[in-house]
Amino acid sequence: DAGVIQSPRHEVTEMGQEVTLRCKPISGHDYLFWYRQTMMRGLELLIYFNNNVPIDDSGMPEDRFSAKMPNASFSTLKIQPSEPRDSAVYFCASSLMGAGAQAQHFGDGTRLSIL
Amino acid sequence: QKEVEQNSGPLSVPEGAIASLNCTYSDRGSQSFFWYRQYSGKSPELIMFIYSNGDKEDGRFTAQLNKASQYVSLLIRDSQPSDSATYLCAVNVGGGGNKLTFGTGTQLKVEL
Which tens digits make up the pLDDT trace of B14-71? Predict the structure, then answer.
């Protein structure tokens, strides 16, 4: 079975540009999580969805960040406008049940560099 | 105080030895505890989880949980060079929710 699929794998863009990261969760998984990982702050949860509905976005750093899940098989994380401090690896993960009950399966991540 | 704390390491152990990785958490209401392994440049992958006090064994890995002392540990027996990675502790902080809070990870190096 296919795992969590993220695109693009790498993104390099200039400050001020809009960035869109994409994620396809594992089929049948009803939870989707977006994380950001940096050396300084480690792995941080940005937002998660249950059955396509955003449940907790308290980790979203500011209004420049937004996330959507229009259907069960697709989610986007958008940064507009982007800033150099947004440079990080962004992971998407999905799970069958809540995080406390089942393992989260991670995608390969998007390595984002904002110049 | 961070919600989930780990020693960043690196922790160096010789091949064949037991590696012991520790994690402390601040929320007494936490119910679920996970260990993930992350190789450099790769995504985290689940090793095992534990919910109850005591030990849980899976092959060469043993997770230990002590809720009274608020720590969880991971033992790796017969350590191999392929075990060299960063190990992330994750806690379902608050107990009832669906979020995982990750520690910053401990880097393990298994030396030949």
Answer: 999 999 999 999 988 888 899 999 999 999 999 999 988 999 999 999 999 999 999 9
Alpha carbon distance B74, B63 (integer Å): 5
Burial, A115: exposed, middle or buried (Cβ in 10 Å; 0-12, 13-18, 19+)? Answer: exposed
Q: What is residue A112's predicted lDDT score, i.e. its pLDDT?
A: 98
Kindly report the length of chain B.
Answer: 112
Q: Chain A residue with minimal CA distance to B96?
A: A100
For A60-80, the pLDDT digits (tens) are 988 999 999 999 999 999 999
Helix (H, G, I), strand (E, B) or coil at B82: helix
Q: To the nearest whole angstrom, how far is the Cα of B82 from the nearest Cα of chain A?
A: 19
Query: From the CB of residue B106, how many other CB atoms can be counted at a distance below 10 Å?
Result: 22
| pLDDT above 80 (res A101) | no
Q: Coil, helix or strand for B96?
A: coil
Q: Pick from B47, B39, B31: which is nearest to B101 by CA?
A: B31
Find chain B residues with C-beta within 8 A of A91's C-beta.
Answer: 43-44
Q: Which of B34, B43, B103 sits opposite A91 (nearest CB)?
A: B43
- Taking an 8 Å cut-off on Cβ atoms, the answer to whether B102 and A55 are in contact is no
Q: How confident is the model at residue A99 (pLDDT cuts 50, 70, 90)?
A: low
Question: Strand B11-14 and strand B106-111: pairing?
Answer: parallel
For strands A110-114 and A10-13, give the pairing: parallel
- Pair A39, A95: CB distance under 8 Å: no
A45 and B95 in contact by Cβ < 8 A?
Answer: no
